[in-house]
Amino acid sequence: MQTKPTSFDIAQLAGVSQPTVSRALRGSTTVSEPTRKRIEAIARQLNYTVDKNASSLRRQTTNTLALLFFEDPTPDESMINPFFLSMLGSITRTCALRGYDLLISFQQMSSNWHVDFEDSRKADGIILLGYGDYELYRARLEALVEQGTHFVRWGFSEEGQPGTTIGCDNFQGGMIAGQHLIAQGRRNIAFLGDATSRYPELRTRYEGLCAAMEGAKITPDQALQVDAITTEQAGFEATQQLIARNVPFDAIFAASDLIAIGAIRALEIHGRSVPEDVAVIGFDDIPAASLAHPPLTTVQQDYRLAGETLVDALLCQIRNQSVSPAMLPAKLIVRKSCGAAQ
Amino acid sequence: MQTKPTSFDIAQLAGVSQPTVSRALRGSTTVSEPTRKRIEAIARQLNYTVDKNASSLRRQTTNTLALLFFEDPTPDESMINPFFLSMLGSITRTCALRGYDLLISFQQMSSNWHVDFEDSRKADGIILLGYGDYELYRARLEALVEQGTHFVRWGFSEEGQPGTTIGCDNFQGGMIAGQHLIAQGRRNIAFLGDATSRYPELRTRYEGLCAAMEGAKITPDQALQVDAITTEQAGFEATQQLIARNVPFDAIFAASDLIAIGAIRALEIHGRSVPEDVAVIGFDDIPAASLAHPPLTTVQQDYRLAGETLVDALLCQIRNQSVSPAMLPAKLIVRKSCGAAQ
DNA sequence: AAGTACACGGCATACGTATTCAGAGAGAAG
DNA sequence: CTTCTCTCTGAATACGTATGCCGTGTACTT
Questions:
Q1: Looking at beta carbons, which residues of chain B come within 8 Å of A90?
Q2: What is the pTM of this model?
Q3: Beta carbon of A10 within 7 Å of strand C?
Q4: DSSP character string of A39-87
Q5: d(Cα B176, Cα A73) in Å, to the nearest integer?
Q6: Which residue of chain B has the CA closest to A99?
Q7: Which residues in chain A touch residue B80, judged by CB atoms under 8 angstroms apart?
Q8: B250-300 pLDDT, tens digit each
């Protein structure tokens, strides 16, 4: 086996022309049954596979999607938000089912988006994944739209926003978390997570919480909100800040599980027990949530559905079908950290 | 911007021929300085990017690597072993640094390895990642070698094994875990993990443990070894089996962190405290290890170095340079679950 | 028996780039 | 002024596949 067999080789062996081989193997109906069988047999025997480069070049389509993670720089650059990592499995799987290959790449938000997979014809479309400073990359999204690039984004969905966005219902998620805490008798609920417009998803979770509180005639207190990006370290530090403010609180709603886990660590150090002194609820339901101590009550995003929805939305777009943004439901997973009887 | 600019378009605008454009943009020295500048300017202005398909077709090389995960079927098919997930970050990053794109795909061990990326010219080489029944896929590795496919594998490294394997020094890892437990005064050390030849990596960890015990004049007891694949559930069940055997033990060395976490859960249910009654050490140092309760002492595999080594080894192979298998050192991370003073 | 329809498959070509080969022009050496 | 060398660029072509168009031969219609 020196050189890879081509459709010409098969054609010669089968006594037909190269185009016929192509037609036969792609399942065109204009090739007679016996001819096709013969060609298929020879192809199998030669271990023939279509050269994807040639095929893509000819068809101007690659059967490949690209997945782009982007994140705020983290101390360890190879760390990825576990929630997105979970989604990765689902995305890969869906791609495989739909017959697409998947290219993946990590981008620092700050770097230039050099890699434009679709532009260089390595992919038919792009999936964007990552929290991150929204303002920073809105311009880039608009550039993508202008270039006619097919892409979908996971995140916060808003009127007049460039491109198609699939996201979880952050407002509802924040609300059920809040309602649950209130039902446990908590009144002074702190929120850890960026509430500025730079992270609209986190902000929306906060708004959901506030809505729940207002529904129970509780006025949200600005002093109980601390900015934090979605890392454990940020959660730890935010909690220390919160404690230092000396405003009483009996519950924490963290904008992500990582933040929540960091918060629990800080609370422990300061001698506040979870859930007795402070009930804690996270967001995402990453694998580590159930391993935390105490096991973390959290708002679950359905990453399987999410991955599937993203891929399918992108495929629709590639086929020039219209796609509407989708909002997936969030679901409360009750464990021990919120103090509810289970 | 309707249609993607080609090197012909640029040639026309620059008043040169297409080959000159190609030469200029690829940095050939045979293009005069002013001509090159002019071409580069026009290319930038037109937002030109090389068509990777055409380029790959012409050059017969793709500048792309493929990453293949394969695993034993798990209940949730989109779950991935966290250790490999950590490695993913490092692999992606290294690929990016080396100027390669990365294709990724998950394979059930049981399925046919349909996707042969290199065969279909979508990748220049393949990285194989996953524990799994070694016997099952040895034949496939041999097929890959025979086809002349470039690939590297993470795992157990053995004489006369098909292909290049990079792995961690499992024997040493098992040994330092054993020595540490013995130094804590533990004598009856159980091992959770498959010790058959189907999972040579896990087996080697066990052999390391045995060597440590024998070094301390302790005879390993077969009754204290229970087979388990690397999932939490398997660890949980294996521990229940172990307890049911009614043979006293004061330490567990688990072949992976997931197994260890499952074991801790089982021990807790049976009223044995960790580390007082039973010291536990895991393997891998997955992110969840430090979050476990108590935080898990474990043998760390350096996933950053691992990913880098894998990619570089593969690139060497692609360039037809000789590559020798490598064995990376393992390192003990002491946390609370082993009962050592920290 | 002649004409029509259709099934099958070949010919030519396009996709966009990279490389080999050869040739043009300029300058230098004689 | 000729010849040689060297630098730069263009013409031609290959990479392997997919598809539009057209020709051939068979079956079927009337």
A1: 78
A2: 0.90
A3: no
A4: HHHHHHHHT----HHHHHHHHT--SEEEEEEEE---SSTT---HHHHHH
A5: 35
A6: B115
A7: 85, 88-89
A8: 999 999 999 999 999 999 999 999 899 999 999 999 988 988 888 999 999
